[in-house]
Amino acid sequence: MSYSITTIIIAINVIISFVAFQDEEAFYKLCFWPDRIWHNKEWIRILSGGFLHANMPHLLFNMISLYFFGPFVEDSFMVEFGAAGHTAFIIFYLLAIVVANIPDLYEHRYNPSYRAVGASGAVSGVIFASILYSPLNKIYIFFIPIGIPAYLFGILYLVYSAYMSRRQADNIGHMAHFSGAIFGIVFPLIFEPTLFMECMHKILSL
To answer: pLDDT tens digits for 4-47?
Structure first.
């Protein structure tokens, strides 16, 4: 499998996050901050916040997930988009960051204290693109030895993210996860609508 673009994206995340770990000023200049975006027109924050992380566990969790799912989606894009596959993957990843942040950009437009960081929305997009391409693949959660069929994981993930977003009981960007996941399905379908029927056929053929 091809690791080229995924490896570069991981490296950029690690470099920017480590710089921000050491430099608080850089962290606040780059983080996703709706109030600054709306009132100061600092639009780059919609994208730059997706390359920052709050701490090492946050960075590791996202990058490990990207490492396992990114190459498969890269390869799938090479099949779907041909020679433009790598370019499509880059565009897909960057758009996933932006799309994942849009609901919170609107929701917190009058909340000057709200800030967020992390690649979770984009990584959710990558994971759900992989589910669309291979719905019967097994997904393992943490150290549970039994794999969950990808399509079932996807359903549970969306339900959980929507529920937790409504509760707002923690500091996790559940709506960003949800939005990124939906984008991960929609983007490939825009260019190859038959993927949906192929996915459903695989699931129903069980």
So the answer is: 899 999 999 999 999 999 999 999 999 999 999 999 999 999 99
Euclidean distance between CA atoms 5 and 8, whole angstroms: 5
Say what angle helices 85-107 and 120-133 make with each other, to 10 degrees: 130
pTM of the complete model? 0.93
Tokens of 203: 């699931």
Domain ranges of the chain: 4-204
Q: What is the DSSP letter of 168?
A: T
Superfamily for 4-204? Rhomboid-like (1.20.1540.10)
The answer, yes or no, to whether residue 206 has pLDDT greater than 90, is no
Residue 169 has pLDDT above 90, yes or no: no
Say if CB 10 and CB 63 are below 8 A apart: yes
3-state secondary structure 50-65: HHCCCCHHHHHHHHHH
Which DSSP category does 138 fall into?
E
Q: What is the dihedral of CA 160, 165, 166, 171, to 10 degrees?
A: 120
Output the six-digit token pair for 83.
């020679």
